[in-house]
Structure formats: C-alpha cells, structure tokens
Amino acid sequence: MKNVIAFIIAGGSAYSFSFALDLLLGGLIGVYPSTAFLPAVTWSVLAVITGFVALRLAPASRFLVIPFGVMAMFAFLGGIVGQRYSLIVGVVMLAQALGVLLASKAENA
After folding, report:
1. Structural contact between residues 62 and 54, judged by C-beta atoms closer than 8 angstroms
2. How many C-beta atoms lie closer than 10 Å to residue 65's C-beta?
3. Which of 2, 21, 52, 60 is 20 to 30 Å from 104 by CA-CA measure?
C-alpha cells in the first residue's frame, strides 16, 4: 500500500516539477508574463516536498521513476506540436527521472 501511495505522490511531484519548469522557461522566453515566476517557485517547493515524501515512503522502489518519464514524454510531445521550449522541459524532466532512478538504486545498495 505504501508503494501505491508513493507512486501517486511521485506523480504529483512530477506534475508540479514540469509545471514549474514550464512557467519558469515560459516566463524567461516571454510566453508568460513576468508574474509567472512566483507560481514557479510555489510549484517548485511543492515538487521538492512531494518528491522527498515519495522517496521516503518507498526509498527502494525504482517504479517511482515512471511518472517523471511520462511527464518528460508529454513535454517532448508538447515541444513537437506546440511551444519549442517544452523540449527543454522534457530534457530536464528526463534528468530528474535519472536522478530519481539513481536515488532508488542508492537505497538498494
């Protein structure tokens, strides 16, 4: 049961992180107004907190990387069909997925 809850929380973390990245990059490029930076900070804090909670609940579960990979694929798809800066969001999301994978491997060792 803890693994299922951790997976759901990891999904929330992945969503929050991708949303924060989108707001940050969109604000820097000029797609969003300059007021987008404050929500980016809020979503980043939510992403960090939920990410740590998910890793704390299921530290040795490698499946926690799945939500981050899925959000990276959505970002890549958004970059292909929509705003090109979403490709950068996808790359950063893949890097975060790798970080989550390495963190779960460290717990297994």
Report:
1. no
2. 20
3. 21
Q: Residue 11 carries which side chain, given as an amino acid letter?
A: G
Residues 85 and 15: their CA atoms lie apart, in Å, by 17
Query: How would DSSP label each residue in 7-66?
Result: HHHHHHHHHHHHHHHHHHHHHHHTSS-GGGHHHHHHHHHHHHHHHHHHHHHSTT-GGGHH
pTM: 0.89
Distance, CA of 94 to CA of 82 (rounded, Å): 19
**How many domains, the chain?**
1
- Expressed as residue numbers, the domain containing 74 is 2-108
Q: What are 7-65's pLDDT values in tens digits?
A: 999 999 999 999 999 999 999 998 999 888 899 999 999 999 999 999 999 988 889 99
Token digits of residue 52? 């740590």
Res 83: pLDDT: 85
